[in-house]
Amino acid sequence: MSANLSDYRAGVPPVALPDTGDPAFAARPRLLVLREALIRAAKQLRPARWNEPAVFFFDAKRQAELEAVRSAEPDRFAELTALIAAELPALLAHVEVRRLARALDGLKAAALAMAPHAAAANDLADLLTVPDDEVFLVVAPNERTGVRLHVRGAAGIAQLHRLLAETGLTYPSTPSLKGRGEKLGFQMFKPAALLPDGTLPVGLAGCEHWLWPTQALAAIPRVAGERVVLVGPATVRPALDVEPRFPEMSVESEVIQTLNPFQVTDVLSRLSGHPVPVTAPANATAVARAA
């Protein structure tokens, strides 16, 4: 997590959200004010004359002196930080408010511009990139199985991993290399990992296409309007003990379609750009079945 939300909320009194039937309607005027504040703050940024990197001293004493001077500098964006902190409770609590914020022209772009310069703006930018109410097409190519999953409120790959484990479906898994019979679970891949025969690479092959638990959910690419992720046997155990980016945000998911082998084959053919066989290869792992 790039910043602890409580760090910059310290000293900011809790905001009482208006009790209305439409939280997005109530938030709109405030979000417009926030957008203008972000745009103003972005205009205050001064680009380096010669693209100089941030100063860093290898001498510990001189670096400590530099940090002491920096910490004494007034926060140029204190007002902006307070505005963002005031809106985060509504944004985290209501998907309708997040939808509105993403739809306001210029708000997301201004937050992204300020993200490297203010922790609060970075949190806002990350929140606005969360793929709320999107459909994720999850396919196990070797098993020719898959689901379409509607997801809301999840910000990271680790959260999607847990959601898939809760769908009641069994995904490909391989025994531990230690020979103790334990399972390593499954690995997530980007669609680019797909081999010409419609299967996934074995072992460390294709690791450049792995999706790591620490990555944002938005790292999953869109194909034809929906997020597409492939799953296969894991080579190493996924480290799922990752702190959620926004733990205050409620996570919901629903399986809206379970794909049969013919539908999966059609998906794989579109991803690979040529027809692939319907049946799974003889050396594939056990077919994943609905629980």
The number of helical segments is 9
The whole-number mean of residue pLDDT values reads 83
Runs in which pLDDT lies below 50 for 5 or more consecutive residues are 176-180, 281-291
When the domains are counted, the total is 2
- Cα end-to-end separation: 35 Å
Alpha-beta classification: alpha+beta
Strand content: 5-15%
Helix coverage percent = 25-40%
SSE succession: HHHHHHHEEHEEEEH
- Total number of β-strand segments? 6
3D shape: globular
Largest sheet: 6 strands, mixed
Radius of gyration: 23 Å
What tags apply to this protein structure?
9 helices, 2 domains, alpha+beta, 291 residues, 36% helix, globular
Write up this protein.
- By secondary structure, this protein is α+β, with helices and mostly antiparallel strands.
- Helix content is 36%, strand content 13%.
- It has helices spanning 5-9, 23-44, 60-72, 78-93, 95-103, 107-114, 119-128, 157-165, 261-272, and strands at residues 134-140, 145-152, 186-189, 222-223, 226-233, 252-259.
- Strands 1, 2, 3, 4, 5 and 6 form a 6-stranded mixed β-sheet that branches.
- A hairpin with a 2-residue loop joins strand 4 (222-223) and strand 5 (226-233).
- Helix 4 crosses helix 5.
- The longest helix has 22 residues, at 23-44.
- It is globular, with a radius of gyration of 23 Å.
- Residues 176-180 and 281-291 have low confidence and may be disordered.
List the helices and strands and how they pair.
Layout: H1 5-9, H2 23-44, H3 60-72, H4 78-93, H5 95-103, H6 107-114, H7 119-128, E1 134-140, E2 145-152, H8 157-165, E3 186-189, E4 222-223, E5 226-233, E6 252-259, H9 261-272
Parallel strand pairs: 1-5
Antiparallel strand pairs: 1-2, 2-6, 3-5, 4-5
Helix pairs in contact: 2-4, 2-5, 2-6, 4-5, 4-7, 6-7
